[in-house]
Amino acid sequence: MELTTTWYLVLGAIIFAIGASGLMIRRNPLVMFMCVELMLNAVNLTFVAFGRELDDLGGQVSVFFVLVVAAAEVVIGLAIIVAIMRHRSGATADDLSVLRG
Amino acid sequence: MEELVWLIPALPLLGFVLLVLGGRRLGEPGAGYLATTMVAGSFIATVLVFVGLLGKDAEERLFEQTLFEWIPAGDFSVDVGFLADPLSITMALFITGISSLIHLYAIAYMHGDKDFSKFFVYMNLFVFSMLMLVLGDNLLITFLGWEGVGTCSYLLISFWFTDEANATAGKKAFVTNRVGDWGFMVATLLAFFTFGSINYGEMFSGADGMATSTATAITLLLLVGAAGKSAQFPLYLWLPDAMAGPTPVSALIHAATMVTGGVYLLTRVNPIIAEASSVAPDVIAWIGLFTALFAASIAVAQADIKKVLAYSTVSQLGFMFVAVGSGVYVAAIFHMVTHAFFKALLFLGAGSVIHGMDDEQDMEYYGGLRKFMPITAATMVVGWLAIAGVPPFSGFWSKDEILLGAYENNVVAWVLLLIAAILTAFYMSRLIFLTFFGERRWSDGDPEAHAAADEPVADDGARSFHPHEPSPLMWVPLVVLAGLALLGGLLNLPFTGDTKILEQWLEPSLFGNEHIATSGAAGKWTLAIMSIVAAVIGVIGAAAVYIRRRVDKSVVEQPILQDAWMVDDTVTSFMGGPGRKSFELVSWFDRTVIDGAVNGTAAVVRHGGLVLRRLQTGFVRSYAVGVGGGAVALLVYFLFRTTF
Amino acid sequence: MFFAQVAPDSIVTPDIAWTALVPHLVLAGGAILMLMVWSLAGRWLPRWLPSMVTAAVGLGAAIGSIHLWRRVTDADRGPFSAVADSVGIDGFSVFLTVVISLTVVFAALLADGYLRRERLDGPEYHVLLLLSAAGGVTMATANDLIVLFLGLEILSLAVYVLAGYHNRRAQSQEAAIKYFVLGAFSSAFLLYGIALTYGATGSTNLVDINAYLRSTVLVDDGLLLAGFALLLVGLGFKVSAVPFHTWTPDVYQGSPTPVVAFMASGVKAAGFAALLRVFVVTFGTYADDWKPILYALAVATLLVGAILAVVQNDVKRMLAYSSISHAGFMLIGVHAASADGTASVLYYLAVYSVLVIGSFAVVGVVSGTGDGATTVGDFAGLGARRPWLAFAFTVFLLAQAGVPLTTGFFAKFYAITAAVDGRSWALAIVAMLSAVIAAYLYLRIMIAMWLEGSDDDAPIRVPVGTVVVLGVAAAFTIGFGIFPEPIVDLARDATPALVNSP
Amino acid sequence: MSAAAVLADIDWHVEQQVFFYLIATTQVVAAWRVVTTKNIVHAALYLVVVLAGVAAQFILLGAEFIASTQVLVYIGAVIVLFLFGIMLTQARIGAENDLDQPNRLPAVLTAGLLAILTVSTVIRTFEDVELPDNSRTTTASVSDSIFSDYIIAFEAVSVLLLAALIGAIVVARKD
User: Fold this and answer.
1) What is the pLDDT of residues C368-412, one digit of tens each?
2) Is the bond into B29 cis (omega within 30 degrees of 0)?
3) Where are the alpha helices (DSSP H) in C337-463?
4) How many domains, chain B?
5) Which residues of B, range 115-174, sit inside 8 Å of C by Cβ?
6) Same structural domain for residues D57 and D142?
7) Do D10 and D90 belong to one domain?
8) Do B627 and C226 touch (CB under 8 A)?
9) So what's the architecture of A5-90 in CATH?
10) D115, D132, D150 member nearest A13 (Cβ)
11) Which of C421, C412, C272, C402 has the alpha carbon at shortest distance from C339?
12) In principle, which of A59, B560, C42, C183 could form an S-S bond with C38, CB 3.0–4.6 Å?
C-alpha cells in the first residue's frame, strides 16, 4: 500500500474519535483530561499532515500554538481537579452532579 | 385645535408620573383627585380636538401628528404619531369621559385602602395606554397601548394581591392576552411586509386591490388579537375571573374601555376586511354570535352579581363582533358607546351595592334593597332597561341597529341574536329583581328595623348587613351615567338621515365600507318591534319566575321556586328543552374543554420541559454525549450536502 | 538595527499597527499592571480599588476604540487589516470590542460588593476578568482562525477559573470542572474544524479563505463542509446553542453571580462575534450549505431554552435557560446571513448584555452571603422588602420578555424582522412562540416578587457598585427602549468586512 | 551527526511506510488502552506512548521542530503534571471500577459514528493523493513564520500562558 496523506488523516481521525469516546465513557476526571489530550494530538497530526500536503508552514505553526494551549489547559484542569479533591477525595466526575435538571 | 391631540394621552401620563413620584406623599384623597383632574383634563382636550374637527369639512376631518421618528428599520420607519379622526376621537371622548366619572367614583370606593395612591397610579397609566391604543397612527403604537392596557389590567386585577384568587386571575388574564397578542404581532409583521408600512393611512391607501389571501390572513390574525382583548370565545375565559379586581376596575377596564379594544381594532382596519374574502367577516360574525349566546346563557345561572355582569359584557361584546362581521361598523361603535354608558353604570351600581353589603357579592344574600339604596336602585333600573333593549333607553337603539345588520346579512344569525337578546333581558331582570326587589334575604341584626321597614324577613340562613346609600362621590357618577344611558340613543336615531349623527360623523373613517341598510321602512319597523318584543319576553319571563315565587310562595306545585337556593336550577329548567342539561353541558364545556385547553397547552409545555429535563442529568459524560451527538448530526447533514 | 545584525536575512517582522491594538493592549496591559502593583503594594491599597481600576481599564478600552470607530466608519479610510492580516478592524469588531469592554466595567462593579461579602476579594478576580476580556476582544477582531482559537482559549481559561472562584462552595467547583471538561472537549472539535478548513482551503487566514472560496469552485467540498460542522460545534458550544447547551444551566447556577453576568454577556458576545465572522462573513459563499443547519439550531435553541426555563425553580437556572432561548433569537440573525441579520445580532447582543447583567446583579444581591438563596421562593416579597430592587428586576424581566418600550422588544423585533426578510416565516413564528412560552417564566418571578409574601426579613444589602450597575442598566433599558435609534444606528453601521492590509 | 542529517539519508518511500504502520498501530492500541484501562497510572503511561508516537509521526512528516517541541512539552511536562495530579488526588493508585456504568452504548455509538464520518471524509477527499515529496521544514523557517505572520498569535499565546499561570494560582489558593 502506498503511503498517502490520507493515512495520516485517518490515523488522526481515529485517535480523535477514541479520545472523544473516552470523554463520553470515563468518569475519572483525570482520564477525561487525558482523552482531551488525545483529541488535541490527533488534531495536531492532522495539521501537520495537511501542512505537508499543502507544502505550507501554517500547519506546523498552528501545532506549535496548540501545544501551548494544551499545556495551559492541563495546568488549569489539574489545578481545578486537585482543588476539588482536597475536599472530597476519590470523587469521580459522576459524583459532581449536584447541579442538574 | 386638533393640534392638541398629543395632550390627550400626555395628561394621564403626566398624572402617572406625578403619582409615581409623589403619590404616597399626597396620600388619600389627594392622589385620587390629582388622577381625576388629569383624566378630566384629557377629556377637555379631547372635546377641544373634537370641536376642531367639527369645524372642518367631513373629508378633511383627519389630522395626523408625528411627534418623533421612533424606530428606524431600513427603508421604513415607525413614528410616534397620533391620528385624530372621527373614529379615534369618538373612542377618546367616551374613554376619557367615562374614565373621569369612574376615577371620581373610585376616590370613594377605594377609601381606606392602604394602597390608595398606587391604585390611581395604575388607573392613570391605564387611561394613558388606552388612549395610545385608540389614537396611535400605526399598528405598533396601537400594539403598544394594547400591551399597556393588558399590563394595567393585570396589575389592577391583582391589586388586592393578598388574595390568592386575585393573583391567579391576574395570571390568567395575562396568559390569555398573550395568545391574543401573538395574533396581533404576526398580523403586524404581515402588514408590514405587505404594505411596507404599518401606518394606517399608508396601509389603507395600499389596501385597494391587495391580495385577497393576504387580507384574509391579516384579518383573521387581528381577529385572534381582538378576540383575546375583547374576550371572545374561546379567549373569553379571563374576563369573568378578572372580576376579582376592585369594582371600579371592572367598570372601567372590563366593561367600558379595554375590552372594546378588539372591536375598535377591527373597525379601524375596515379597508383590509373589505379586501378579505367573505370568510373573514363571516368568521368574525359567527364568533361574535356564538359568544353572545354562549355567555348570555351562562349569565343566566350566576349567583355572583359581578359574574352576571361579566358574562353579560362578554355577550354584549359578541353583539359588537356580529356588527363588525355584518359590516355595520357604525352599529358596532354605537353599541360600544351605549354599552360603555350602561355597563359602567351597572358595574358601578353593583359596586355600590357590594359596598353597602359589606363586600358580599352573592345575590342570594340580597333582596329588597331598593328601600335602602334608592339612588343606586333607580340608576341601576335605568341601566337594566337600557341593556334589556327597552325603548327609549339607549341600548334599544344600538342593539336594534345590530339586529338589523345581522338580519340583512343572514336571517339565521338574526334569529340566534334575537334569542341572545331575550336571554339578556332575562338575566338582567333577574339581577335587578334579586337585588332590589323581593324579600330581604339578609338581616340587619336589628328586629326593630324590620318592623319599621315593613319587610318580610327570611327566617333562617339570613346574614346581618347594614345596607346604605354610598357617599355622593359615588352616586353622582351613577346619576350622570344613568342620564347618558337614558339619552345615549340620541346619538344615532334611525328615523331620518339627519338623525343618524354618529353615522355621518364616522363616515370618513369607514371609507364607504359600511353596510347600508337596504330594508324598507316597514321591514325596519317590524324588526324594531320584534326586538322590543324580545326585550319584553325576557323581562316578563324573569318577572314570571320571580313574581310567581313571591306570590305563590306556599303553592305546593312549585316547590323548587320556593327554595331560594334553587333559583338557578329553576331558571335552568324554566328555560325549557333539555334546559338544565344543556346548561350543565355549557358549564362542563367551559370547565373541562376550554379551561382544559388553556391548562393543557401549559401542561404540554410543562410536560415537555420535564421530559427534556431528564436529559440534563448533571453528569459531564452525558453532556459530552450530547455535544458529540450534535457533532455527529452536523457531520451527517453536511456530508449529505457535499458536491461529490 | 540590533536584530538585523543577529539574523540578517531571516526575520521580516510585520508592521505592528499599534493603534489597531489599543483595546487589546489596554485590557491585557491593565491586567499585567494590576498584577504587578498588587503583588508589590497590595497590602497598602484599599479593598475597593481593584474593581475601580478594572472598571476604569474596561472603560479605557472602550474609549480607546472610539478612534477606530471613527476610522472604519469614515468613507475614505474604511475597515482595514493589521499585523500580517491577522487582526481585522471593521465596524463589526469595534462594536463588539466596545460591548465586551463595557461588560467588563459592569462585571467589575458587580464583583466589588460580591467578593467582599463572600470574603474572596483581591486583585486576582479582576486580573482574570481583564485577561478574559482581552481574549474576547482578540476573538472579535481575529482575522485568522488560529488567532481566533487562541483568543477563545484565553477567554475560556480565565472564565473556567472564575467559574470556580468561590472555592468554599461545592457548586462553584462543580461548575468549574464541568465547564472546563466540556469546554476543552468542544475546543478540540473547534480545532479539528480549523484543521479541516485549513486542509480544504490551504490557509487559516479568513481573508485568504474567503478569497479562495470566492475564486475557486471546489471539486469535492466534503472536507470543507466537515470543517463547517466541527467549527459549528465549537462555536455553538460557546454561544450555548442546543444541543451544545448542556453546560449552561449547571455552570450558570454554580458559578459566582458576577461571573455569570460576564459569561452571559461578554463571553456570549465573543462567541457570536466568531460565529458571525467565520460563517456569515468568511463562508458567506457557502451560505446555502450552512443555513439549513443554523435554522435547525435556532429552532431547537429557541424552544428547548424556553420550555426548560419554565420548569425550573432556581432563578439562576431559569435565567440560564432563558439565555439559551435568547441565543436562539440571535441565531436567527446569524441564519439570515444578511447585513440586517448581522445588525440584528449586534443590537441583540448589546441590549441583552445590559439586561442580563442587570438581572444577575439583582440575583447576586438577593442570593445573600454564600450565594445560595436563588430559588424563586427566595425572591418572594422582594417588592415589599426592596421595592427599587424589585422594580429594576421587573424592568429587566419585562425587557427579556420583549415587552414594548424596553430595549428587549426591539431586539426581538429586529431578529424576527431578519427572519421574515429572509422569508423564513416558520422561524419567525417559532421565535414568537418561544417568546410567549418564556413570558410565563418572567411572569413567575415577577409574581413571586410582587404578589407573594415572605417571612424572610433578613436585610438585603445592595453595594454601591451594584446600585450603579442597576441604575445604568435600567436607565439604558427604558431609555433606549423608548428611543432605540442611537443603538440601532450604531449596530447598522457596524458592518463586518474582510480586507487585506493596504 | 545530527538527527536531521540521519533522517535526510533515509529512503523515505520504504522506511516511512514501515515506520508509519508500526507506529500508527501502536498509537491506536495505546489510545484504546487509555480509554479502557482501569488503572489510572497505566492510562497515563499509555498516553505517553500515543504522544511519543505523534512525535515520531511528526518526524516522519519532516516536522522536526514540532516533533521536538512535542517531546519537550508533552512528555517532559504534561505527562509529569498528570502523574503529579494522580499522586495528589487519588486515594489509592490502582484499579478503579469507573467503567461499570450503564448507558455506554450511546457514547460508543457516537464515537463510532464520529470516526466513520471523519475517516470517510478524509479518505474520500484524499483518496490517492500521494504524500508530496517536499523538503522538510527547518526550525528557522518555522520560527520565521511564528515571528512574522503569526506574531499576533504568539503574543496571544503569551497572554494565554499568563492567564493559565494566574488561574492555577487562584485555583490553588487556600480557603
Assistant:
1) 888 788 888 888 888 888 888 999 999 999 999 988 778 998 899
2) yes
3) 339-366, 382-385, 387-401, 407-421, 425-451
4) 4
5) 140, 143-144, 147-148, 151, 158, 161-162, 167, 170-171, 174
6) no
7) yes
8) no
9) Orthogonal Bundle (1.10)
10) D115
11) C421
12) C42
Rounded distance, CA A53 to CA C333, Å? Answer: 37
Of all residues in chain A, the one with the smallest CA distance to B631 is A20
3-state secondary structure C281-341: HHCHHHHHHHHHHHHHHHHHHHHHHHHHHHCCCEHHHHHHHHHHHHHHHHHHHHHHCCHHH
Check if A48 contacts C (Cβ < 8 Å).
no
Smallest CA-to-CA distance from C86 within C501, C390, C502 is with C501
CB-neighbour burial class of residue B299 (10 A; exposed 0-12, middle 13-18, buried 19+): buried
φ/ψ of D103, rounded to 5, equals 60, 40
Judged against a pLDDT cut of 90, whether residue B551 lies above it is answered with: no
| Helix (H), strand (E) at residue C20 | none
- Note the pLDDT of residue D62: 84
C-alpha distance from B613 to closest chain C C-alpha (Å): 7
Residue B101 belongs to what domain range? 1-137
Print the domain residue range for D152.
138-175
DSSP D84-117: HHHHHH-SS-SB--TT--S-HHHHHHHHHHHHHH
Q: Do A83 and C250 touch (CB under 8 A)?
A: no
Interchain pair B621, A97: CB under 8 A: no
- Residue C39 at interface with chain D, using a CB cutoff of 8 Å: no
pLDDT band at C253; cut points 50, 70, 90: very high
* Nearest of C82, C59, C47 to residue C500 by alpha carbon: C82
Measured between alpha carbons, how far is B135 from B141 in angstroms, rounded to an integer?
8
With residue B64 as reference, give the H or E element that holds it: strand B63-73
Q: How far apart are CA D29 and CA D46, in angstroms?
A: 9
Q: Spell out the residues 6+ positions from residue C203 whose beta carbon is closer than 8 angstroms to its own.
A: A56, A58, C209, C212
Tell me which residue of B238, B219, B232, B228 sits closest to B170, measured CA to CA: B238
Question: Could you tell me which of B56, B55, B78 has the C-alpha nearest to residue B68?
Answer: B78
User: Distance (Å, rounded) from C-alpha B503 to C-alpha B486?
Assistant: 20
Among the candidates B518, B543, B575, a domain finishes at: B575
How far is B389 from C265, CA to CA, in rounded Å? 61
Tell me, what DSSP letter sits at residue D132?
P
Per residue, the 3-state secondary structure of C240-293, as one string, reads: CCCCCCCHHHHHHHHCCHHHHHHHHHHHHHHHHHHHHHHHHHHCHHHHHHHHHH
Give residues 49 to 68 of A whose Cβ lies within 8 Å of D. Answer: 49, 51-53, 55, 57-58, 60-61, 63-65, 67-68
Residue D4 burial (CB count, 10 A)? 13
Spans of chain D below 50 pLDDT? 1, 100
Distance separating alpha carbons of residues B14 and B244, to the nearest angstrom: 28
Within this chain, do residues B286 and B271 fall inside the same structural domain, yes or no?
no
Cell of A45: 497530526
Candidates C245, C308, C416, C480: best to mutate against B (most CBs of B within 10 A) is: C308
Point out the residue among C157, C177, C187 whose CB comes nearest to the CB of A96: C177
Task: Tell me, yes or no, whether B97 and B225 share the same domain.
Answer: no
- Residue D12 in any domain: the answer is yes
Residues 6+ apart with CB under 8 A from C395: C358, C406, C474, C477, C478
Q: What would the pLDDT profile of B3-34 be if each residue is shown by its tens digit? A: 788 888 888 888 888 888 777 777 777 888 88
Q: Which of residues 100-139 of D touch B (CB under 8 A)?
A: 103, 106-107, 110-111, 113-114, 117-118, 120-121, 124
Distance CA D1, CA D6 (A): 7
CA distance B260 to B239: 12
Q: Which residues of chain B make contact with D110, given a CB cutoff of 8 A?
A: 625, 628-629, 632
CA dist B397 and B389 (Å) reads 8
In the DSSP assignment, the letter for residue D134 is: P
